Amino acid sequence: MDGRINGMMCRQIERAFKVITIFLTIAVFASTARGDLSGWRIGIDPGHGGTDPGAVGPTGLQEKEVNLTASLGMRYFLVRQNAEVFMTRTTDVTLSLSSRANFMNSNDVDRSICVHHNSSSNPDPNWHLTYVAEGTGWATSGDLAFDISHRVTDFNGLGFGWSNCGREGVYEENFYMLIYTYMPSVLPEISFISNPLEEQRLYHDRYCYGNGRGMYEGIMDHLGGWGGDAGEVEGHALEIAQLPTEFKLHQSYPNPFNAQTVIPLELPQRSMVKIELFNVSGRNLGTICEGIKEAGWPKVHYNAAHLASGLYFYKVVVEGLEQGGSFMDTGKMLLLK
Ligand SMILES: [Zn+2]
Protein backbone atom coordinates (compact mmCIF):
# COMPACT_ATOMS: atom_id res chain seq x y z
CA MET A 1 0.00 0.00 0.00
CA ASP A 2 2.76 2.44 1.05
CA GLY A 3 4.73 1.74 -2.05
CA ARG A 4 1.65 2.36 -4.06
CA ILE A 5 0.92 5.71 -2.39
CA ASN A 6 4.53 6.86 -2.83
CA GLY A 7 4.30 5.68 -6.38
CA MET A 8 1.16 7.70 -6.85
CA MET A 9 2.79 10.87 -5.51
CA CYS A 10 5.73 10.41 -7.84
CA ARG A 11 3.30 9.80 -10.62
CA GLN A 12 1.44 13.01 -9.84
CA ILE A 13 4.65 14.99 -10.08
CA GLU A 14 5.55 13.19 -13.25
CA ARG A 15 2.11 13.78 -14.59
CA ALA A 16 2.47 17.50 -13.89
CA PHE A 17 5.64 17.57 -15.99
CA LYS A 18 3.90 15.61 -18.66
CA VAL A 19 1.01 18.02 -18.72
CA ILE A 20 3.44 20.95 -18.99
CA THR A 21 5.29 19.18 -21.81
CA ILE A 22 2.07 18.50 -23.61
CA PHE A 23 0.88 22.09 -23.21
CA LEU A 24 4.20 23.34 -24.57
CA THR A 25 3.93 20.92 -27.46
CA ILE A 26 0.42 22.06 -28.19
CA ALA A 27 1.43 25.71 -27.87
CA VAL A 28 4.32 25.33 -30.30
CA PHE A 29 2.60 23.08 -32.79
CA ALA A 30 -0.94 24.23 -32.25
CA SER A 31 -1.83 24.03 -35.89
CA THR A 32 -0.43 20.57 -36.62
CA ALA A 33 -0.05 18.64 -33.38
CA ARG A 34 -3.62 18.32 -32.25
CA GLY A 35 -4.07 14.87 -30.82
CA ASP A 36 -0.33 14.37 -30.53
CA LEU A 37 0.54 11.74 -27.91
CA SER A 38 4.16 12.78 -27.31
CA GLY A 39 5.18 12.00 -23.74
CA TRP A 40 2.54 9.35 -23.14
CA ARG A 41 3.67 5.81 -22.37
CA ILE A 42 1.13 3.21 -23.41
CA GLY A 43 1.39 -0.45 -22.38
CA ILE A 44 -0.26 -3.08 -24.57
CA ASP A 45 -0.66 -6.69 -23.47
CA PRO A 46 -1.95 -9.04 -26.19
CA GLY A 47 -3.66 -11.72 -24.07
CA HIS A 48 -2.50 -15.37 -24.00
CA GLY A 49 0.24 -16.65 -26.37
CA GLY A 50 2.59 -19.60 -26.80
CA THR A 51 1.21 -22.70 -25.07
CA ASP A 52 -1.92 -20.77 -24.01
CA PRO A 53 -4.19 -20.29 -27.06
CA GLY A 54 -6.93 -18.49 -25.10
CA ALA A 55 -10.41 -19.09 -26.47
CA VAL A 56 -10.72 -21.09 -29.69
CA GLY A 57 -13.32 -20.34 -32.38
CA PRO A 58 -15.66 -22.92 -33.94
CA THR A 59 -13.26 -23.63 -36.83
CA GLY A 60 -10.09 -23.36 -34.75
CA LEU A 61 -9.04 -19.70 -34.85
CA GLN A 62 -7.08 -19.00 -31.66
CA GLU A 63 -7.66 -15.96 -29.51
CA LYS A 64 -3.92 -15.43 -28.94
CA GLU A 65 -3.51 -14.69 -32.66
CA VAL A 66 -6.28 -12.13 -33.01
CA ASN A 67 -5.32 -10.46 -29.72
CA LEU A 68 -1.85 -9.93 -31.18
CA THR A 69 -3.06 -8.72 -34.57
CA ALA A 70 -5.42 -6.15 -33.03
CA SER A 71 -2.66 -5.06 -30.62
CA LEU A 72 -0.18 -4.55 -33.46
CA GLY A 73 -2.79 -2.48 -35.27
CA MET A 74 -3.27 -0.33 -32.18
CA ARG A 75 0.50 0.11 -31.77
CA TYR A 76 0.85 1.21 -35.39
CA PHE A 77 -1.51 4.14 -34.90
CA LEU A 78 -0.21 5.10 -31.46
CA VAL A 79 3.35 5.29 -32.76
CA ARG A 80 2.18 7.42 -35.66
CA GLN A 81 0.87 9.88 -33.08
CA ASN A 82 4.23 9.83 -31.23
CA ALA A 83 3.18 7.79 -28.20
CA GLU A 84 5.81 5.53 -26.64
CA VAL A 85 4.42 2.00 -26.82
CA PHE A 86 5.45 -0.95 -24.64
CA MET A 87 4.19 -4.40 -25.65
CA THR A 88 4.42 -7.45 -23.40
CA ARG A 89 4.76 -9.59 -26.52
CA THR A 90 4.98 -9.02 -30.28
CA THR A 91 5.27 -12.72 -31.18
CA ASP A 92 3.68 -16.00 -30.13
CA VAL A 93 5.32 -16.59 -26.75
CA THR A 94 4.14 -17.89 -23.38
CA LEU A 95 4.02 -15.28 -20.60
CA SER A 96 2.71 -15.50 -17.04
CA LEU A 97 0.20 -12.96 -15.80
CA SER A 98 2.64 -11.78 -13.14
CA SER A 99 5.36 -11.12 -15.73
CA ARG A 100 2.86 -9.13 -17.79
CA ALA A 101 1.82 -7.01 -14.80
CA ASN A 102 5.47 -6.54 -13.78
CA PHE A 103 6.25 -5.41 -17.31
CA MET A 104 3.62 -2.67 -17.11
CA ASN A 105 4.74 -1.58 -13.65
CA SER A 106 8.49 -1.60 -14.31
CA ASN A 107 8.08 0.34 -17.56
CA ASP A 108 5.93 2.82 -15.66
CA VAL A 109 3.39 3.08 -18.43
CA ASP A 110 0.62 5.67 -18.08
CA ARG A 111 -2.13 3.35 -19.29
CA SER A 112 -2.29 -0.44 -19.58
CA ILE A 113 -4.46 -2.07 -22.22
CA CYS A 114 -4.87 -5.88 -22.18
CA VAL A 115 -6.41 -7.05 -25.40
CA HIS A 116 -8.74 -10.06 -25.39
CA HIS A 117 -11.61 -11.60 -27.30
CA ASN A 118 -14.57 -13.09 -25.54
CA SER A 119 -16.03 -16.58 -25.75
CA SER A 120 -19.19 -18.45 -24.82
CA SER A 121 -20.40 -22.05 -25.06
CA ASN A 122 -23.46 -20.56 -26.80
CA PRO A 123 -22.62 -19.60 -30.43
CA ASP A 124 -25.07 -16.66 -30.52
CA PRO A 125 -23.59 -13.94 -28.26
CA ASN A 126 -21.39 -11.34 -29.90
CA TRP A 127 -20.89 -8.02 -28.19
CA HIS A 128 -18.18 -5.75 -26.90
CA LEU A 129 -17.24 -4.84 -23.32
CA THR A 130 -14.18 -3.23 -21.76
CA TYR A 131 -13.38 -4.42 -18.24
CA VAL A 132 -11.93 -2.35 -15.39
CA ALA A 133 -11.17 -3.22 -11.77
CA GLU A 134 -14.00 -3.07 -9.26
CA GLY A 135 -14.75 0.46 -8.12
CA THR A 136 -13.03 2.12 -11.11
CA GLY A 137 -15.88 2.19 -13.61
CA TRP A 138 -16.22 5.95 -13.09
CA ALA A 139 -12.55 6.66 -12.43
CA THR A 140 -9.80 7.19 -15.02
CA SER A 141 -9.83 3.53 -16.02
CA GLY A 142 -13.57 3.74 -16.61
CA ASP A 143 -13.14 6.90 -18.71
CA LEU A 144 -10.63 5.12 -20.95
CA ALA A 145 -12.77 1.97 -21.10
CA PHE A 146 -15.80 4.03 -22.11
CA ASP A 147 -13.91 5.75 -24.93
CA ILE A 148 -12.39 2.48 -26.19
CA SER A 149 -15.73 0.66 -26.12
CA HIS A 150 -17.43 3.38 -28.11
CA ARG A 151 -14.72 3.63 -30.75
CA VAL A 152 -14.36 -0.13 -31.19
CA THR A 153 -18.10 -0.60 -31.63
CA ASP A 154 -18.25 2.36 -34.02
CA PHE A 155 -15.94 0.28 -36.17
CA ASN A 156 -17.13 -3.30 -35.75
CA GLY A 157 -20.83 -2.54 -35.47
CA LEU A 158 -21.38 -4.65 -32.34
CA GLY A 159 -23.50 -3.63 -29.38
CA PHE A 160 -22.43 -3.65 -25.73
CA GLY A 161 -22.94 -6.40 -23.19
CA TRP A 162 -24.68 -5.21 -20.02
CA SER A 163 -22.77 -3.00 -17.60
CA ASN A 164 -22.59 -3.67 -13.85
CA CYS A 165 -21.56 -0.10 -13.01
CA GLY A 166 -24.13 1.89 -14.94
CA ARG A 167 -21.69 2.97 -17.64
CA GLU A 168 -22.33 1.79 -21.19
CA GLY A 169 -19.60 -0.50 -22.51
CA VAL A 170 -17.81 -0.72 -19.13
CA TYR A 171 -17.84 -3.72 -16.77
CA GLU A 172 -16.10 -3.98 -13.40
CA GLU A 173 -14.30 -7.26 -12.76
CA ASN A 174 -11.12 -7.94 -10.78
CA PHE A 175 -9.04 -9.59 -13.48
CA TYR A 176 -5.40 -10.07 -12.53
CA MET A 177 -4.03 -7.50 -14.97
CA LEU A 178 -6.48 -4.89 -13.73
CA ILE A 179 -5.63 -5.14 -10.04
CA TYR A 180 -1.89 -5.89 -10.13
CA THR A 181 -0.97 -2.95 -12.35
CA TYR A 182 -0.43 0.42 -10.68
CA MET A 183 -1.72 2.65 -13.47
CA PRO A 184 -5.21 3.03 -14.95
CA SER A 185 -5.82 -0.31 -16.66
CA VAL A 186 -8.45 -1.63 -19.01
CA LEU A 187 -9.15 -4.99 -20.61
CA PRO A 188 -11.18 -4.77 -23.82
CA GLU A 189 -12.95 -7.97 -24.88
CA ILE A 190 -13.24 -6.95 -28.52
CA SER A 191 -15.89 -9.44 -29.67
CA PHE A 192 -16.85 -13.12 -29.36
CA ILE A 193 -14.51 -15.49 -31.20
CA SER A 194 -17.03 -18.26 -30.35
CA ASN A 195 -19.63 -16.68 -32.66
CA PRO A 196 -19.24 -18.40 -36.07
CA LEU A 197 -19.73 -15.26 -38.16
CA GLU A 198 -17.46 -13.19 -35.92
CA GLU A 199 -14.77 -15.85 -36.17
CA GLN A 200 -14.92 -15.49 -39.97
CA ARG A 201 -14.43 -11.74 -39.64
CA LEU A 202 -11.52 -12.24 -37.24
CA TYR A 203 -9.69 -14.37 -39.80
CA HIS A 204 -9.08 -11.14 -41.74
CA ASP A 205 -6.10 -9.21 -40.42
CA ARG A 206 -7.50 -5.99 -41.73
CA TYR A 207 -10.60 -6.47 -39.58
CA CYS A 208 -8.42 -7.04 -36.49
CA TYR A 209 -6.34 -3.98 -37.39
CA GLY A 210 -9.59 -2.04 -37.59
CA ASN A 211 -10.44 -3.09 -34.02
CA GLY A 212 -6.92 -1.99 -33.09
CA ARG A 213 -7.61 1.34 -34.71
CA GLY A 214 -10.81 1.56 -32.65
CA MET A 215 -8.85 1.07 -29.42
CA TYR A 216 -6.34 3.67 -30.58
CA GLU A 217 -9.13 6.12 -31.33
CA GLY A 218 -10.49 5.56 -27.81
CA ILE A 219 -7.05 6.38 -26.39
CA MET A 220 -6.96 9.50 -28.57
CA ASP A 221 -10.34 10.60 -27.23
CA HIS A 222 -9.12 9.94 -23.71
CA LEU A 223 -5.61 11.43 -23.84
CA GLY A 224 -5.28 13.39 -27.00
CA GLY A 225 -8.24 15.72 -26.78
CA TRP A 226 -9.16 14.48 -30.18
CA GLY A 227 -12.88 14.12 -29.55
CA GLY A 228 -14.03 12.62 -32.76
CA ASP A 229 -12.50 14.58 -35.64
CA ALA A 230 -11.02 11.71 -37.58
CA GLY A 231 -9.89 13.85 -40.48
CA GLU A 232 -6.28 14.22 -39.39
CA VAL A 233 -5.59 10.53 -39.05
CA GLU A 234 -8.07 9.02 -41.43
CA GLY A 235 -5.56 8.90 -44.27
CA HIS A 236 -3.05 6.67 -42.57
CA ALA A 237 -5.75 4.86 -40.60
CA LEU A 238 -7.03 3.49 -43.87
CA GLU A 239 -3.60 2.30 -44.93
CA ILE A 240 -3.79 -0.49 -42.44
CA ALA A 241 -7.39 -0.91 -41.40
CA GLN A 242 -8.48 -1.58 -44.92
CA LEU A 243 -12.11 -1.93 -45.70
CA PRO A 244 -13.87 -4.86 -47.36
CA THR A 245 -12.85 -5.15 -50.99
CA GLU A 246 -16.27 -6.03 -52.37
CA PHE A 247 -19.95 -5.81 -51.59
CA LYS A 248 -21.22 -8.88 -49.83
CA LEU A 249 -24.37 -10.20 -48.21
CA HIS A 250 -23.97 -12.86 -45.53
CA GLN A 251 -26.44 -15.41 -44.21
CA SER A 252 -28.65 -13.91 -41.53
CA TYR A 253 -28.29 -15.33 -38.05
CA PRO A 254 -29.48 -16.99 -36.02
CA ASN A 255 -31.22 -19.09 -38.63
CA PRO A 256 -33.83 -20.44 -37.99
CA PHE A 257 -34.81 -17.47 -35.84
CA ASN A 258 -37.55 -16.25 -33.47
CA ALA A 259 -38.10 -13.39 -33.96
CA GLN A 260 -34.92 -11.27 -33.92
CA THR A 261 -32.40 -11.71 -36.68
CA VAL A 262 -29.31 -9.96 -37.95
CA ILE A 263 -28.35 -9.51 -41.60
CA PRO A 264 -24.60 -8.86 -42.03
CA LEU A 265 -23.23 -6.90 -44.96
CA GLU A 266 -19.82 -5.94 -46.25
CA LEU A 267 -19.48 -2.52 -47.85
CA PRO A 268 -16.19 -1.36 -49.43
CA GLN A 269 -17.52 2.20 -49.60
CA ARG A 270 -20.24 4.43 -48.15
CA SER A 271 -23.42 3.12 -49.72
CA MET A 272 -27.16 3.45 -50.04
CA VAL A 273 -28.59 0.17 -48.76
CA LYS A 274 -32.12 -1.12 -49.23
CA ILE A 275 -33.31 -4.49 -47.91
CA GLU A 276 -36.78 -5.76 -48.71
CA LEU A 277 -38.61 -8.80 -47.39
CA PHE A 278 -40.52 -11.31 -49.53
CA ASN A 279 -42.57 -14.40 -48.76
CA VAL A 280 -42.26 -17.69 -50.67
CA SER A 281 -44.84 -16.64 -53.26
CA GLY A 282 -42.78 -13.57 -54.06
CA ARG A 283 -45.02 -11.01 -52.39
CA ASN A 284 -43.17 -7.94 -51.15
CA LEU A 285 -43.83 -7.68 -47.39
CA GLY A 286 -42.10 -4.36 -46.90
CA THR A 287 -38.75 -2.74 -46.29
CA ILE A 288 -36.40 -4.00 -43.58
CA CYS A 289 -34.00 -1.12 -43.95
CA GLU A 290 -33.34 1.78 -46.28
CA GLY A 291 -30.63 4.37 -45.84
CA ILE A 292 -26.98 5.30 -46.04
CA LYS A 293 -24.44 3.04 -44.33
CA GLU A 294 -20.75 3.73 -43.79
CA ALA A 295 -18.09 1.48 -45.33
CA GLY A 296 -17.28 -1.53 -43.16
CA TRP A 297 -19.21 -4.49 -41.80
CA PRO A 298 -22.64 -3.12 -40.91
CA LYS A 299 -25.31 -5.38 -39.46
CA VAL A 300 -28.99 -4.83 -40.01
CA HIS A 301 -31.20 -5.94 -37.12
CA TYR A 302 -34.73 -7.07 -37.87
CA ASN A 303 -37.62 -8.14 -35.68
CA ALA A 304 -40.15 -10.42 -37.39
CA ALA A 305 -42.49 -10.76 -34.39
CA HIS A 306 -45.46 -9.67 -36.51
CA LEU A 307 -44.95 -12.44 -39.12
CA ALA A 308 -46.13 -16.06 -39.14
CA SER A 309 -43.67 -18.94 -39.06
CA GLY A 310 -42.27 -19.77 -42.48
CA LEU A 311 -39.56 -19.24 -45.04
CA TYR A 312 -38.78 -15.67 -46.07
CA PHE A 313 -36.40 -14.02 -48.51
CA TYR A 314 -34.45 -10.81 -48.01
CA LYS A 315 -33.31 -8.93 -51.07
CA VAL A 316 -30.47 -6.45 -50.76
CA VAL A 317 -29.81 -3.65 -53.24
CA VAL A 318 -26.70 -1.52 -52.68
CA GLU A 319 -25.54 1.59 -54.56
CA GLY A 320 -21.98 2.74 -53.87
CA LEU A 321 -21.87 6.45 -53.07
CA GLU A 322 -18.13 7.03 -53.38
CA GLN A 323 -16.70 4.97 -56.24
CA GLY A 324 -20.09 4.01 -57.64
CA GLY A 325 -21.05 0.47 -58.56
CA SER A 326 -24.00 -1.50 -57.35
CA PHE A 327 -24.79 -4.88 -55.91
CA MET A 328 -27.82 -7.08 -55.48
CA ASP A 329 -28.26 -10.37 -53.69
CA THR A 330 -30.91 -12.42 -51.94
CA GLY A 331 -30.81 -14.60 -48.85
CA LYS A 332 -33.36 -16.77 -47.13
CA MET A 333 -34.29 -17.15 -43.51
CA LEU A 334 -36.60 -19.45 -41.63
CA LEU A 335 -38.87 -18.01 -38.95
CA LEU A 336 -39.90 -20.66 -36.39
CA LYS A 337 -42.21 -19.54 -33.63
ZN1 LIG B 1 -8.62 -13.99 -23.34
Automatic annotation (TrEMBL):
Q: Which residues form a coiled coil?
A: none
Task: Tell me which EC number(s) this protein carries.
Answer: 3.5.1.28
SUPFAM superfamilies in UniProt: Zn-dependent exopeptidases
Q: Which GO terms describe its biological process?
A: peptidoglycan catabolic process
Quote the cellular component terms of the Gene Ontology held in the record. Answer: outer membrane-bounded periplasmic space
Q: Which UniProt keywords apply?
A: Hydrolase
MurNAc-LAA domain segment(s) = 101-220
- Name one matching Pfam family: Amidase_3
The EC category is hydrolase
Report which superkingdom the organism of origin falls in: Bacteria
Gene Ontology molecular functions: N-acetylmuramoyl-L-alanine amidase activity
Q: Which reaction does it catalyse?
A: Hydrolyzes the link between N-acetylmuramoyl residues and L-amino acid residues in certain cell-wall glycopeptides
Q: What PANTHER family does the record tag this protein with?
A: N-ACETYLMURAMOYL-L-ALANINE AMIDASE, N-ACETYLMURAMOYL-L-ALANINE AMIDASE AMIC
Spell out the protein name for this chain: N-acetylmuramoyl-L-alanine amidase
